[in-house]
């Protein structure tokens, strides 16, 4: 299952219904923080939790899952066909353009990031590994307690479970190619249960 597309579908339906994160989480018996992580594609919900969310949103699981298991051998995404996502709003203003959304079932998630100068969100972790390549602008990767200045053409590969963030320096927007890879596959029910407990 593609976590990014599932997360966007959930958020899109919630907004269409005019519901807040708090309202959906409360009615589904979940925490707001946990649901926010799901919508920001930071964790995969268990099927029982997803069923509760779908019930609150008055949408069937089949509608949410439709097409997510498709696996074409090759997909082409034209520059004018990119799908833009936002993550961790309103704190972060980074724009994520998906470069592979046409293949719903995939093990890597490549994005073109446009990082505005004023973006100053906190460092956050995520499952899996990440590859980052600076296309334009002067960037800085804050990784754990360290910082690494990156220029156009520089790249870095790292463990996503260490809190990190990418920010721009020298007063200009950065454009960065990022590839996420969840080496562990989908989150297990056990991991999801731990996340719920932490946010409760």
TrEMBL record:
- What keyword terms does UniProt attach to this protein? DNA-binding
Domain called HTH cro/C1-type: residue spans: 10-64
* SMART domains registered for this protein in UniProt: HTH_XRE (SM00530)
Q: Which Gene3D superfamilies match?
A: Jelly Rolls, lambda repressor-like DNA-binding domains
Can you supply one Gene Ontology CC term for this chain's record? cytosol
Q: Which InterPro entries match?
A: Cro/C1-type_HTH (IPR001387), Cupin_2 (IPR013096), Lambda_DNA-bd_dom_sf (IPR010982), RmlC-like_jellyroll (IPR014710), RmlC_Cupin_sf (IPR011051), TransReg_Diox_bact_type (IPR050807)
Reply yes or no: does the keyword DNA-binding apply: yes
MF-aspect GO terms? DNA binding; DNA-binding transcription factor activity
Key word ATP-binding present: no
Family matches, as CDD domains: cupin_XRE_C, HTH_XRE
Lineage, top-rank taxon, reads: Bacteria
Protein name as annotated: HTH-type transcriptional regulator PuuR
């Amino acid at each position: 299952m593609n976590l990014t597309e599932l997360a966007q579908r959930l958020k899109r339906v919630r907004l269409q219904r005019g519901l807040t994160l708090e309202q959906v989480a409360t009615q589904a018996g979940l925490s707001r923080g946990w649901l926010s992580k799901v919508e920001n594609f930071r964790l995969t919900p268990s099927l029982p939790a997803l069923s509760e969310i779908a019930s609150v949103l008055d949408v069937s699981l089949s509608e949410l899952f439709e097409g997510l298991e498709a696996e074409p051998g090759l997909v082409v995404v034209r520059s004018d066909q990119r799908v833009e996502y936002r993550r961790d709003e309103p704190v972060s203003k980074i724009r994520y353009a998906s470069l592979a959304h046409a293949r719903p079932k995939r093990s890597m998630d490549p994005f073109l990031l446009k990082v505005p100068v004023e973006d100053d969100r906190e460092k956050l972790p995520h499952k899996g590994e990440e590859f980052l390549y600076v296309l334009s602008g002067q960037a800085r990767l804050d990784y754990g307690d360290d910082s690494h200045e990156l220029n156009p053409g520089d790249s870095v590969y790292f463990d996503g479970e260490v809190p990190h963030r990418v920010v721009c320096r020298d007063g200009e927007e950065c454009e960065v190619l990022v590839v996420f890879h969840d080496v562990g596959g989908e989150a297990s029910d056990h991991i999801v249960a731990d996340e719920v407990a932490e946010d409760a």
